[in-house]
C-alpha cells in the first residue's frame, strides 16, 4: 500500500508536527529539522481528526474511523487517555470531528451515528437538563427550487433561513415537552399553547404515510373539515415580526403562503 498522509497538525507552540498516515500510524516530527521523533501506535483505521490542546504543547488528540479517541503526550510518544466509541447493538461509531474547549478542560466529538460525545472534568449535571435525542422537526423536510432557482421549503414555500424557529423532537419525530422547546432561540418567551406542535399524518413522495410535526404545515381554508390552528397563526405572526425586524417591506397583515384570509384568531 502506498503511504498517504490523511491529516496534519502542529502542536501548540509549533515545535512538533503530527501527521496521520493511511497505514494507521501517527508520526511526530521535529518541525525545524524534519527529524522523525515518534511513531504513535493505536489506531486500526484511517485518522481524519488531529486536534492540539489550546495551551499545553505536549497534548494532541486523535480520532478516526475505527471509533478510537486518543490523547497523546507527543513529547514522550505515549498514550495518556483512550476511549473506544462502542454503541450497544450497532458496533463502533466512526469519529468524524473533535474540538477542545477554550479552557482545555473539555472536548467534544461527533460520530457517524449522530451522537455528540462530551468529555471533561467535573460533573455532568449541567447536561442533564436537555434530552438525550434532539433534532429539529425540519431537519429532513424536502426542499424544492422555485422559478428563480432559489431553494424553498416544500411544505411552507418559504426560504429555509426565513422560516420560524423549528420544534425540538426525538429521533422518531415525537416533540419534546415545552420546557425543551424554549431552548430553541426565538421560542424563549412563547406561551405554553404555542410550544406544543401538532402531529399528523402526511404522504411522502413515494406514497408512504408517515407521522410528523405539522405545526408549520399550511392549511387550505377552503378544504372541508380543516380548521385554522392556533399554532399556524402563531408561526405566521413570528414570521411577520421577523420580516419587520430585518427591514423587509411587509404590510401589517400576515402574508403566509396560500393560507387563506390571514391569521386565525383564538376563540
TrEMBL record:
**Matching Pfam families, A to Z?**
WD40 (PF00400)
> Its GO CC terms?
nucleus
Q: Which UniProt keywords apply?
A: Repeat, WD repeat
- Lineage top rank: taxon: Eukaryota
Q: Which GO terms describe its biological process?
A: cytoskeleton organization; regulation of cell shape; regulation of transcription by RNA polymerase II
Q: What segments bear the compositional bias annotation Polar residues?
A: 249-261
What the entry lists under Gene3D superfamilies is as follows: YVTN repeat-like/Quinoprotein amine dehydrogenase
Q: Does the keyword Repeat apply?
A: yes
Each WD repeat occupies one of these ranges, namely 1-39, 40-82
InterPro entries tied to this protein: Bromo_WD_repeat (IPR052060), WD40/YVTN_repeat-like_dom_sf (IPR015943), WD40_repeat_CS (IPR019775), WD40_repeat_dom_sf (IPR036322), WD40_rpt (IPR001680)
Q: Quick one: signal sequence residues? A: none
Which residue ranges does the record annotate as region Disordered? Answer: 239-267
Protein name stated in the entry = BRWD1 protein
Source organism per UniProt: Acrocephalus arundinaceus
Q: Which gene encodes it?
A: Brwd1_0
Amino acid at each position: 500500500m502506498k503511504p498517504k498522509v490523511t491529516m496534519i497538525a502542529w502542536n501548540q507552540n509549533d515545535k512538533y508536527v503530527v501527521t496521520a498516515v493511511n497505514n494507521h500510524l501517527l508520526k511526530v516530527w521535529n518541525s525545524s529539522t524534519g527529524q522523525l521523533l515518534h511513531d504513535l501506535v493505536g489506531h486500526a483505521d484511517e485518522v481524519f481528526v488531529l486536534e492540539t490542546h489550546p495551551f499545553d504543547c505536549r497534548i494532541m488528540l486523535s480520532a478516526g474511523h475505527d471509533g478510537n479517541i486518543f490523547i497523546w503526550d507527543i513529547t514522550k510518544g505515549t498514550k495518556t487517555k483512550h476511549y473506544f466509541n462502542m454503541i450497544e447493538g450497532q458496533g463502533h461509531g466512526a469519529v468524524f470531528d473533535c474540538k477542545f474547549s477554550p479552557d482545555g478542560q473539555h472536548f467534544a466529538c461527533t460520530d457517524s451515528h449522530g451522537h455528540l460525545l462530551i468529555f471533561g472534568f467535573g460533573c455532568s449535571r449541567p447536561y442533564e437538563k436537555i434530552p438525550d435525542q434532539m433534532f429539529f422537526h425540519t431537519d429532513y423536510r424536502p426542499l424544492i427550487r422555485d422559478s428563480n432557482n432559489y431553494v424553498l421549503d416544500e411544505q411552507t414555500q418559504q426560504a429555509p433561513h426565513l422560516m420560524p424557529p423549528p420544534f425540538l423532537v426525538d429521533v422518531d419525530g415525537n416533540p419534546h415537552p415545552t420546557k425543551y422547546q424554549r431552548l430553541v432561540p426565538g421560542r424563549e418567551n412563547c406561551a405554553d399553547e404555542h410550544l406544543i406542535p401538532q402531529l399528523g399524518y402526511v404522504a411522502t413522495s413515494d406514497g408512504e404515510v408517515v407521522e410528523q410535526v405539522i405545526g408549520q404545515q399550511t392549511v387550505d381554508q377552503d378544504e372541508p373539515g380543516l380548521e385554522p390552528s392556533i399554532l399556524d397563526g402563531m408561526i405566521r405572526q413570528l414570521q411577520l415580526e421577523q420580516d419587520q425586524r430585518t427591514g423587509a417591506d411587509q404590510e401589517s397583515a400576515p402574508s403566509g403562503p396560500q393560507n387563506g384570509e390571514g391569521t386565525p384568531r383564538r376563540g
